[in-house]
Design brief:
Residues 58-238 form the ABC transmembrane type-1 domain. It is built from eleven helices and no strands. By secondary structure, the chain is mainly alpha-helical.
């Protein structure tokens, strides 16, 4: 137990030392680099979390993540089930899905703004586009790993297709869906910051641009630390939900 605590702390301590050494080396040729020092970033972070503005940005960003993730799940889970249960659909759709999956979500920025305008709508689109693929693929993989006897039992009981999906397939692949959601959260959190540079007036991405424009580099570093911490928390919650489901289902 002690080792599990000390090893992460040692890794963080080493990262802080390297960060400080890097800033000190840069400061000789670029004096402004001093604003990025760990101590100044820590002070800026303490000031940020004591104010109310940053929490508004965080709240709006988390709302966008929730909407984007929800849209991705609404699309990804049914499509994943359809891919795994229909060979004709899989043969026609999977090449297209694989092609789209390899396109960076950020490359859709100009088109998203052109079609949806500025504001939350293009952000939702970019986040959903980024998150749908791991959910879709993990759902399909989960259906492929289901015990065929479950499906045979459902057919022998004259279950309809919708009953089979709702009462046999989805409960049997919940762990796979949660794995896809966890992967989607990691991707969506990375895409969030540049996506929020699309004309919105609040959010973590907007705050990053604002600190740059104000030359508030210590706040910029503090915001980067905050983004990492929030992302870690979201991943932890996703892992906890996945582990809890596995414990309950077993």
């Amino acid at each position: 137990m002690l080792k599990r605590i000390l090893l992460p702390l040692a890794g963080l301590g080493l990262a802080l030392l390297l960060w400080g050494a890097g800033v000190a080396a840069l400061e000789r040729s670029t004096p402004i680099a001093a604003a990025f020092a760990p101590a100044r970033a820590a002070l800026a972070l303490a000031e940020l979390v004591q104010g109310r503005d940053i929490w508004l940005h965080i709240w709006l960003s988390l709302q966008r993540v929730a909407v984007g993730l929800g849209l991705a799940a609404v699309l990804g889970v049914p499509l994943g089930v359809l891919v795994a249960t229909s060979k004709n659909f899989a043969g026609g759709a999977m090449p297209l899905f694989q092609l789209l999956r390899m396109v960076s979500p950020l490359s859709w920025m100009p088109l998203a703004v052109m079609v949806l305008g500025v504001g939350d709508a293009p952000v939702y689109f970019l986040l959903a586009f980024a998150a749908v693929w791991p959910i879709l693929l993990n759902t399909a993989a989960g259906v492929g790993r289901l015990d065929p006897n479950w499906l045979l039992l459902a057919r022998s009981l004259s279950a309809t297709r919708s009953e089979t999906v709702l009462r046999v397939i989805l409960p049997g692949i919940t762990a796979d869906i949660l794995t896809g959601v966890r992967l989607a959260i990691g991707i969506i959190w990375i895409v969030l910051v540049p996506a929020e540079m699309l004309g919105v007036s609040a959010g973590i991405g907007y705050f990053i641009l604002d600190t740059r424009d104000r030359l508030a580099y210590s706040e910029l570093m503090a915001a980067i630390i905050l983004i990492g911490g929030l992302g870690f928390l979201l991943d932890y919650l996703a892992r906890a939900a996945h582990a809890r489901w596995l414990h309950v289902s077993n």
